[in-house]
């Protein structure tokens, strides 16, 4: 290695990793992944062959076409969750319904593997909500805004009344020593 060589550039890997993290945070990533992982065994098992020596076990049943359709729809819904997250609730409900339909139609939901993955993916998709951008969040360490802007005007609203605290009002007949004003009625004399 010569002194002029820049060595390995680790910045590119870090930039790609941060970009992926941002992309993943803007959508229901895990919901889409679980839904696609649920669709794969549902579509695969009816067409798979297990070979034990010279003996071949096939899981081909009359539900082969139904399994393939359910599996492909689940994979499509997982991709929809990733790339069109605005319809995440619809995709989540559809994934849960397809997972439930796969129990009787697709070899017990891909031997329960696909059923459980699709069910969890659908539930995650329904419960996911986009985050609030940092600029819109309130800073918990910022100085509170003055209460004068939010205080209602008029009689009976004293300091602390906004927060539900009972603050005693000055009695009408009390004498205010600072102003020399008697709180009672005045008579012109």
From TrEMBL:
Keywords: Membrane, Transmembrane, Transmembrane helix. The keyword Ubl conjugation does not apply. It holds the Pfam family DUF6114. The chain crosses the membrane at residues 28-45, 57-79, 86-105, 111-129. Residues 147-156, 173-189 have a biased composition (Basic and acidic residues). It comes from the Bacteria. The keyword tRNA processing does not apply. Residues 135-189 are annotated as: Disordered. This is Integral membrane protein. It comes from Kitasatospora albolonga. The lineage of its organism: Bacteria, Bacillati, Actinomycetota, Actinomycetes, Kitasatosporales.
């Amino acid at each position: 290695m010569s002194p002029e060589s820049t060595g390995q550039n680790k910045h590119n890997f870090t930039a790609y990793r941060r970009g992926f993290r941002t992309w993943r945070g803007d959508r229901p990533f895990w919901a889409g992944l679980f839904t696609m992982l649920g669709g794969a065994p549902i579509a695969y098992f009816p067409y798979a062959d297990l070979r034990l020596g010279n003996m071949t076990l096939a899981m081909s049943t009359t539900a082969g076409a139904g399994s393939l359709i359910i599996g492909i729809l689940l994979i499509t819904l997982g991709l929809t969750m990733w790339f069109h997250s605005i319809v995440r609730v619809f995709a989540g409900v559809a994934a849960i319904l397809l997972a439930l339909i796969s129990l009787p139609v697709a070899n017990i939901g891909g031997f329960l593997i696909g059923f459980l993955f699709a069910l969890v993916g659908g539930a995650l998709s329904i419960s996911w909500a986009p985050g609030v951008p940092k600029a819109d969040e309130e800073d918990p360490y910022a100085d509170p805004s003055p209460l004068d802007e939010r205080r209602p005007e008029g009689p009976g609203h004293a300091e602390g009344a906004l927060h539900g605290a009972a603050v005693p009002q000055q009695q009408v007949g009390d004498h205010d020593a600072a102003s020399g004003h008697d709180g009672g009625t005045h008579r012109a004399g």
